[in-house]
Design brief:
Organism (chain A): Tritonibacter horizontis
Strand content of chain A: under 5%
Number of strands of chain B: 22
Chains: A mainly alpha (about 325), B alpha/beta (about 500), C mainly alpha (about 375)
Number of domains of chain A: 1
Order of helices and strands of chain A: HHHHHHHHHHHHHEEH
Strand order of the largest sheet of chain A: 1-2
Helix content of chain A: 55-70%
Largest sheet of chain B: 6 strands, mixed
CATH superfamily of the largest domain in chain B: P-loop containing nucleotide triphosphate hydrolases
Number of domains of chain B: 2
CATH topology of the largest domain in chain B: Rossmann fold
Strand order of the largest sheet of chain B: 6-7-8-3-9-10
Subcellular location (chain A): Cell membrane
CATH class of the largest domain in chain B: Alpha Beta
Largest interface: A-C, 45 and 51 residues
Keywords (chain A): Cell membrane, Membrane, Transmembrane, Transmembrane helix
Distance between the termini of chain A: 65 Å
Structural class of chain A: mainly alpha
Membrane topology (chain A): Multi-pass membrane protein
Radius of gyration of chain B: 25 Å
Oligomer: heterotrimer
CATH class of chain A: Mainly Alpha
Number of helices of chain A: 14
CATH topology of chain A: ABC transporter involved in vitamin B12 uptake, BtuC
CATH architecture of chain A: Orthogonal Bundle
GO molecular function, one term (chain A): transmembrane transporter activity
Largest sheet of chain A: 2 strands, antiparallel
Strand content of chain B: 25-35%
């Protein structure tokens, strides 16, 4: 594998990691506040569909993003209603919302577009396109030189390759996702809201007796979760790909959940975990089968690898993960 | 005359069909310690939760310092100057002391300025009231006594001048409790008003200025402490004369039934809870194990009952029993002739959603008498339950009711009936009367003594010194995982045991 | 003190939840621009209006019986088995191997041995998450979800690389031999003079499913093991106190649950397709969740709920055929049923409890 291939795999890693990272941080906010959310998948799927649908209809990707986030927030609201207001089972609520998204997206897609449960392919304006950073080699340079872009990149020096392929040329949402890592850290550990949020996931009674609304905090956390899942879904349909296809999240919500556990609910570690899973996906995408010392690893193993790895992590063979103490339990005032 | 610090007028509160508070009125003068005493379930905590905005009263008014005040939530209570120290502390365990104090009372959206101001203010408070605690320690690194201080500091930081303490000494050693009362005394002298909720008469008599007695949701009386007597208060509390001593003939101890040698228990967090103890319980005697909650008694009981693993040696009737691996589970213990009434009947001794008859078979469900081939003999279980309910006067005597539908006393009778009727050689019994009404306490105590008189060995664990002293033939005290000493029950008193419970070793027993 | 009579808990609340789900589904249908009344008409006609419709309804119901029971058994132990889909896939794999490689003299022996193979494979697939939950505390919900994905990869690999007949492009096994094909409901009912559609897929495994209901009922409420499973589900500390090993009980419960899912293959793979294809389970593992919730984890409730969902699936297929409503409508209904009977249970329950309390006060 030459340097450029490596760079390209890493570049692809960034793209694959972005929806995972956004969803992982979404889950982080929710679970830090004590609300388990296995409905990340459904929220992403819902947002993917609505962002693609609205972007396709209006030709405006920002309107698409907004609708995606709004639809994800609606599911968040339902999850909050079930698990905070009515103190229902958070896991069951998550499962239900995943099915709801899975069914509704295809149902509405069929009703609106009649293309077998997908949206029309998005054109340039309907998508988040790559942002070319200064001094990077991009499509504009290729057009100016009237040569294919990959040739230009191939000829460039290693630093320029690294810069142009890996660092430059991503859509804005990739950079936004990266920005959310320090932001999340700062909010959690440097603000009043963060202190209260972490407290409500550990011991909601402490927050309640201090005169702060447990429900309010948890709804806020679930809301942030919806927002981030919305962006993640929108990136899938309007950044990573050009339109919505049924079940396009293909388990990313669950992988994000695994990354969250792997990261032990910490923002910087979440970045690391998501990059690792992104790398796995990027490798699987690029190399259909891998030769490994005369032994061929079938493509199915690559497909299953993130899930296998997650199980290994969950089994605690890579450090014990202790979730927020009040996680998964509805708050009931003690008599 | 100054306005009362707190005045409650006609407070009523019902939870579904249960009337927790009935038309309660009290008035507390500023700068005094006012005690509220009553049995478990008398409605004390409910009343205080209403005052702290946890519940809304169905009826009644709250007046604070002469003004009628609505307290819809805790925030309102805090702004009215009320602080509360709950029985179970409301602290975030993996936060520092400082973070816990600031939580909910931050100055602004950013954390750092709040924390540094709080650090300064904390220093002043510490000096003013002699409430020293390291602000940067995490809560799970400090002991319960200090945790309680943090709770008090939390209230003071919020400028509380009315402080409610709910059963504050339950988890403290006697010296820690003394220290707490010195702090409360100091707070009183600074003009703070203190409400002390307790079921311990001694605390009321020693430290309060006035006292209210609650029984079954009603306020029975409010008197000046100096003008009342323990007997009078006890009678008001339970509604009739109580026997403080259990009638029993002297024990005739026989051969050793349970022998414990060098037993140690390490919990799942890696903390050594029981540290190489030796104990012997003989046939026909009750060994009472006293100690403040959390000093290893629970773990000892659990390891004997087969709920935990340990190291060392235990023998029952001379035969060694494994402490880990196969044959160390609770079922094997039952086969070895050990019956176990666990400390927590709601989480361990009973399955609250099971019918009474299923609970009577609980733990013994694989025994021949409850079997019909591979199936359970449900009819036999029900018949057995009816018999046990009659014998132990369980009310209502309906085997089909779920365990959760019985009162605490009747739940405990179900457990005790199940375990005692197995006719065990050794009975392990933890907190036999926690949350049990007076009538049932007497009955359960009699059953325990009767079992002793049949020549059985009994190991009793209780955090109620009074219960230990009145039931036991011998008393051992546990502190920090070790046995501090043993005494014949008739040759010791609360004071000596209290010292041992605080880790001051008695003379070698 | 019970807040309301048992029948309200067991019948009234599920029915109200179902009505709520139906109401919202009707609104969705309206929004698509179709008529809910006509849709319901079409569903009833298509699913219950002919023995052919009934045949499909019962065929689907049989699938859901197995997965519903599986989820219910696990739920009694406090375990949420979302892995039914993967366990059913592996069940299909085990069954296919038995049917393809062992010659049988009669379908009844084939059913017995193939069922054993299917159950074993399903149980094995549940065993790993169960072990990780019991021994290492890995959350079984997440691990079983992961195992669904892994199962799909395993099945894909086996079909493409090993089981596919030579020369075939489709990732599926060849047709099972004649002797491993099960009698359909038509074959069974004809001798006793009942005319049942010849083309419908309902088959003898319906009775296996009903028998499974009875066995599970006996297991849960009439055996020491059932007592232990339910005790563990209510209180782990209590189980330990009673000498019930949580590890052993979790393992056994999940093995039973996985085996039940695996057994589904006798219906969809052996009884209907008569060969193993990639997407044989068609989400039935997940529908088991809704069926168990709706049926209150009781085998009789599961039976009724399975029939209901069988009706919905067959009716939904008819809708997709004759209207513009895609069959994903059923996924939406399924989601709503899970939402209302599972997560939003209190929303339905609390007002009803209040009504009963008020009624009682009035009578008192």
């Amino acid at each position: 594998m030459d340097f450029l291939t490596l760079i390209q795999v890493l570049d692809s890693t960034m793209r694959m990691a972005t929806p995972l990272l956004l969803a992982c941080l979404a889950g982080l906010f929710s679970e830090r506040a004590g609300i388990f959310d296995i409905g990340l998948e459904g929220k992403m799927l819902m947002a993917a569909f609505f962002s693609a649908a609205v972007a396709a209809a209006t030709g405006n990707v920002w309107l698409g993003l907004l609708s995606g986030v709004a639809s994800s927030l609606v599911l968040s609201g339902l999850h909050g209603l079930a698990s905070i207001t009515f103190r229902g089972n958070q896991l069951i609520s998550g499962v239900a919302l995943n099915f709801l998204a899975s069914g509704l997206t295809v149902l509405i897609a069929e009703s609106w577009f009649r293309q077998g449960g997908r949206t029309p392919s998005l054109l340039t304006d309907g998508r988040f396109n790559g942002i070319e950073l200064p001094f990077a080699i991009g499509p504009a340079d290729a057009a100016a030189a009237d040569r294919p872009l990959n040739e230009l990149i191939k000829e460039a020096g290693p630093i320029q390759q690294l810069y142009s392929e890996l660092i430059s040329g991503h859509s804005i949402l990739v950079y936004v996702a990266l920005l959310f890592v320090p932001l999340t850290w700062w909010v959690l550990f440097r603000t009043r809201f963060g202190l209260r949020l972490r407290a409500v996931g550990e011991n909601p009674a402490a927050v309640d007796t201090a005169g702060v609304s447990v429900q309010g905090l948890r709804f806020a956390a679930v809301g942030i979760c919806g927002l981030l899942c919305g962006i993640a879904g929108a990136y899938l349909a309007t950044g990573l790909q050009a339109g919505f296809v049924r079940e396009m999240t293909s388990g990313r919500g669950y992988i994000a959940l695994a990354a969250l556990i792997f990261a032990k609910w910490r923002p910087w570690h979440a970045l690391g975990a998501c990059l690792l899973f992104g790398l796995l996906q990027a490798i699987a995408l690029r190399f259909q089968s891998i030769q490994f010392g005369g032994f061929t690893i079938p493509v199915q193993v690559m497909d299953a690898l993130p899930y296998i790895l997650t199980v290994v992590i969950l089994a605690g063979f890579v450090g014990k993960a202790i979730p927020p103490r009040a996680g998964g339990q509805p708050y009931v005032k003690e008599r | 005359m100054t306005a009362p610090a707190i005045e409650l007028k006609g407070i009523s509160k019902a939870f579904g069909p249960v009337q927790a508070n009935k038309d309660i009125s009290i008035s507390v003068q500023p700068g005094t310690i006012h005690g509220i005493i009553g049995e478990n379930g008398a409605g004390k905590s409910t009343l205080m939760s209403i005052l702290y905005g946890f519940y809304k009263a169905d009826k009644g008014e709250i007046w604070i310092k002469g003004t009628k005040t609505e307290i819809p939530d805790s925030q309102a209570a805090i702004s009215a100057g009320i602080g509360m120290v709950f029985q179970h502390f409301k602290l975030v365990e993996n936060f520092t002391v400082l973070e816990n104090i600031v939580l909910g009372a931050e100055d602004s959206g950013l954390l750092m300025p709040s924390l540094s101001r709080a650090r300064k203010e904390l220093k002043e408070l510490e000096e003013e009231y002699e409430l020293y605690v390291d602000p940067d320690k995490r809560i799970d690194e400090i002991g319960v006594g200090l945790q309680q201080r943090v709770e008090i500091l939390k209230a003071l930081y919020r400028k509380a001048d009315i402080l409610i303490l709910d059963e504050p000494t339950g988890v403290l050693t006697p010296p820690e409790a003394d220290q707490l009362f010195r702090i409360l005394d100091r707070l009183r002298s600074e003009g703070k008003t203190i409400i002390l909720i307790t079921h311990k008469l001694r605390e009321i008599m020693e430290y309060t200025d006035t006292v209210s007695v609650m029984r079954r949701g009603e306020m029975n009386a409010t008197v000046k402490t100096s003008e009342s007597s323990p007997e009078q208060l006890a009678e008001l509390m339970v509604g009739r004369k109580v026997l403080l001593r259990v009638d029993k003939v002297p024990a005739r101890p026989g051969k050793p039934v349970l022998e414990i040698e060098n037993l140690s228990v390490v919990d799942s967090a890696g903390v050594e809870r029981v540290k190489g103890i030796d104990l012997t319980v003989r046939a026909g005697e009750i060994l009472g194990l006293a100690g403040v909650a959390g000093n290893g008694q629970s773990e000892l009981l659990e390891v004997l009952g087969g709920m935990r693993v340990g190291t060392g040696t235990i023998r029952v009737n001379g035969a060694p029993l494994p402490l880990s691996g196969s044959g160390s589970d609770a079922r094997s213990r039952r086969h070895a002739g050990i019956a176990h009434v666990p400390e927590d009947r709601q989480r361990e001794g009973l399955i609250m959603d099971f019918h009474a008859w299923e609970n009577i078979g609980f733990g013994y469900h694989r025994e021949e008498i409850y079997r019909k081939g591979v199936l359970l003999n449900n009819a036999a279980l029900r018949a057995d339950t009816e018999a046990k309910m009659a014998k132990f006067d369980v009310r209502p005597p309906n085997p089909w009711l779920a365990a959760k539908s019985f009162s605490g006393g009747n739940q405990q009778k179900l457990v005790v009936a199940r375990e005692i009727e197995r006719n065990p050689d050794l009975l392990l019994i933890g907190q036999p009367t926690r949350g049990v009404d007076i009538g049932a306490i007497e009955f359960i105590h009699q059953q325990i003594v009767a079992l002793r008189d049949q020549g059985k060995a009994i190991l009793l664990v209780s955090v109620e010194l009074e219960e230990i002293l009145s039931l036991s033939d011998r008393v051992a005290v546990m502190f920090d995982g070790k046995i501090m000493g043993e005494r014949p029950a008739d040759q010791t008193d609360e004071k000596e045991l209290g010292l041992m419970m605080a880790g001051v070793a008695g003379e070698a027993a | 003190m019970e807040k309301m009579p048992k029948w309200a808990d067991v019948v009234l609340i599920p029915v109200i939840s179902l009505l709520l789900a139906a109401l919202i589904s009707a609104i969705v249908i309206l929004l698509i621009g179709e008529s809910p009344i006509e849709a319901l008409d079409l569903m009833v006609e298509g699913a219950l209006g002919s023995t052919n419709g009934w045949g499909y309804t019962l065929y689907y119901a049989t699938n859901f019986l197995f997965t519903g029971l599986a989820v219910a058994v696990a739920a009694h132990a406090g375990l949420f088995n979302i892995g039914g889909e993967g366990q059913a896939m592996l069940g299909g794999l085990g069954l296919a191997i038995v049917c393809l490689y062992i010659p049988f003299p009669h379908w009844s022996i084939a059913l017995l041995v193939a069922g054993l193979g299917a159950g074993l494979f399903g149980a094995a697939w549940a065993a790993i998450p169960a072990y990780l939950q019991a021994k290492r505390g890995s959350h079984i919900v997440i691990t079983t979800i992961m195992f669904n994905f892994i199962a799909a990869a395993v099945l894909n690999y086996m079909l493409v690389n090993t089981l596919k007949p030579k020369g075939s492009m489709e990732p599926a096994t060849g047709r099972f031999p004649e002797s491993a094909q099960l009698p359909s409901l038509h074959d069974i009912l004809a001798p006793i003079g009942i005319e049942f559609s010849k083309s419908s897929p309902a088959n003898v495994t319906l009775f296996v499913g009903i028998a499974a209901c009875v066995v599970v009922w006996g297991l849960i409420w009439h055996t020491p093991l059932g007592h232990e499973i339910r005790a563990l589900g209510k209180s782990e500390r209590g189980a330990v106190y009673a000498g019930i090993s949580p590890v052993r009980t979790v393992m056994i419960t999940m093995l039973i649950s996985g085996a039940l899912c695996g057994l589904m293959a006798t219906n969809n793979v052996m009884g209907e397709a008569e060969r193993l294809v990639l997407n044989a389970t068609e989400g039935a593992g997940f529908i088991g969740i809704a069926v168990a919730l709706m049926g209150r984890n009781h085998p009789f409730g599961v039976f009724l709920a399975a029939i209901l969902f069988g009706f919905l699936y067959q009716g939904g297929a008819e809708l997709a055929l004759w209207t513009n409503i895609p069959s994903e409508l059923i996924v939406v209904i399924q989601a709503l049923v899970i939402l209302f009977t599972g997560a939003l249970d209190n929303m339905v329950r609390m007002p009803i409890e209040k009504i009963f309390l008020a009624l009682r006060k009035e009578n008192a």
